[in-house]
């Protein structure tokens, strides 16, 4: 029961790909029946499902790997059928022939340096050719696989390909949301004048590093899509530039937010009176983080001055200025991306 929420989350996360796989499998079955007259095109449906199964890092590479592996296995299986049987007959010959075919097909499949699906499909295809015969598992199966891969590629490369630029923006938004939440907690600590709340704010901001790790995963995924998907290749140059910019900004934002949280905690523990307007400045920085998600920025109220403040509060102001400078340096979304994401002007 304790694991039920996690299981439900995983089911929901897999729902989109599972629905796509089921739909693509049905379409592949119908196409193979219509184009080739196959009465039970099981391989077409299975191939489409394998191409689009949930949890795959890249559906396009999976589809390419399947068709390559199947082709290798069929060719090796056909060649194995031509091995001479002189001196060895019956089950012994069949088993030896199958061992040789599996070994050779999987070695050839592995030589391309592609995902494991290539040698797996190569070995399985060789077994099917030898066990079922070339008529049933040779070209007949290849036709089904071509249909299944074609449908899988259409779904993964055209219908369901994620926008890599949006992936990057979503990852950056999560980081900005985390920092904004920590700044709100810091402002609340100033309002309540309690070091305990400052500790909570500092703890929240220290976890920004975890968010940066998730952001890096999002950027890596976007780069992957830019390389292996049709939609990604169209925007490959923009994805590369945006990924480099966001990586750079994320490291600076994370470091600045962490230092700000540490400085605030030290200053509040000293017990001296904070500069006037500091709470409002912190809330403004939080609002600036959230505004960057929509490409806008609230008016700058100006940071509290450093006159007549002790060194601890001066350190807080320095880190606030650093964070504000980073946020102000971030370019806004251009109009084309704003319209694509349906963001307000």
Short description:
The chain contains 15 helices and no strands.
Overview of the structural elements:
- The structure is a single chain.
- With 345 residues, the protein is mainly α.
- It is 78% helix and 0% strand.
- The chain has helices at residues 4-36, 42-52, 59-81, 91-110, 117-132, 134-137, 139-159, 164-192, 195-206, 208-228, 230-234, 236-270, 278-291, 311-329, 335-340.
Q: Helix content range of the residues, please?
A: over 70%
Largest sheet: none
Radius of gyration: 29 Å
Question: Mean pLDDT, as a whole number?
Answer: 79
Number of strands: 0
N-C termini distance: 46 Å
Helix-strand topology string: HHHHHHHHHHHHHHH
Structural class: mainly alpha
Number of domains: 2
% residues in beta strands: under 5%
Q: Low-confidence segments, ≥5 residues, pLDDT <50?
A: 329-345
The shape is elongated
Task: List the total number of helices.
Answer: 15
Q: What order do the helices and strands come in, and which of them pair?
A:
Blueprint: H1 4-36, H2 42-52, H3 59-81, H4 91-110, H5 117-132, H6 134-137, H7 139-159, H8 164-192, H9 195-206, H10 208-228, H11 230-234, H12 236-270, H13 278-291, H14 311-329, H15 335-340
Helix pairs in contact: 1-2, 1-7, 2-3, 2-7, 3-4, 3-5, 3-7, 4-5, 8-9, 8-10, 8-12, 8-13, 9-12, 10-12, 12-14, 13-14
